[in-house]
Specification:
Elements lengths: L12 H18 L6 H6 L3 H16 L5 H15 L2 H13 L4 H6 L11 H14 L6 H35 L15
Length: 187
């Protein structure tokens, strides 16, 4: 499919205001004043963009998971799924959350990064099982539940679902990461 045209020239004032609001909410984490291209494309259906944006804001800025675990999950899911756009948009957030460049790069490799603590390793293993369409093993779920509660485990799986939706949007509408963002390492 060809990329969608920019919907902003034909958007009503309320939609333009929502685009600006969503950009402002994400500006510190993203390090950019502009709303990401994937959200702009979604504004061809403003209700979808608003609902997806609200879920993203809830999980990213008001969720249960600590920042470093959330970003570990997002980067692992992006790498395992080949979603370059999601990877590119979350490397900065991962670094702000305290993940080192080595750990970030290792999240793109097939194995669990040895630098991670047991909870971080459990996040990676849980994401791997979600990507592989498998149940999360009891032992992994127990580590996660002990660390972040059942609500945190549910949030982790919801993050995978949100990132899948975002990834499908970028693939379906040929949305590439904006220039200057880091590329997904190839292992």
């Amino acid at each position: 499919m060809a990329p969608l045209p920019d919907p902003r020239p034909h958007a009503d004032p309320a939609t333009l205001a929502e685009i600006q609001r969503m950009a402002a909410v994400r500006s510190d984490a993203d390090g950019r004043a502009e709303l990401g291209s994937v959200y702009i494309a979604m504004f061809h259906n403003p209700a979808v963009a608003r609902h997806v944006g609200a879920l993203g804001e809830s999980l990213r800025f008001a969720g249960t998971l600590p920042d470093h675990l959330r970003e570990t999950a997002i980067l692992r899911f992006a790498a395992r799924s080949g979603f370059e756009y999601e990877w590119a948009h979350h490397v900065r957030a991962a670094m702000l959350a305290g993940l080192s460049e080595e750990v970030i790069a290792a999240l793109a490799a097939p194995s669990v990064p040895p630098e991670l603590d047991p909870v971080g390793s459990a996040v990676v293993l849980a994401v791997d099982h979600v990507v592989d369409h498998q149940e999360i093993p009891d032992t992994v779920q127990r580590v996660l539940t002990d660390a972040v509660g059942a609500s945190g485990v549910v949030e982790l799986v919801a993050l995978c679902g949100l990132d899948a939706l975002m990834g499908y949007m970028t693939i379906s509408f040929a949305i590439a990461p904006e220039s200057g963002l880091p590329a997904l390492p190839r292992s």
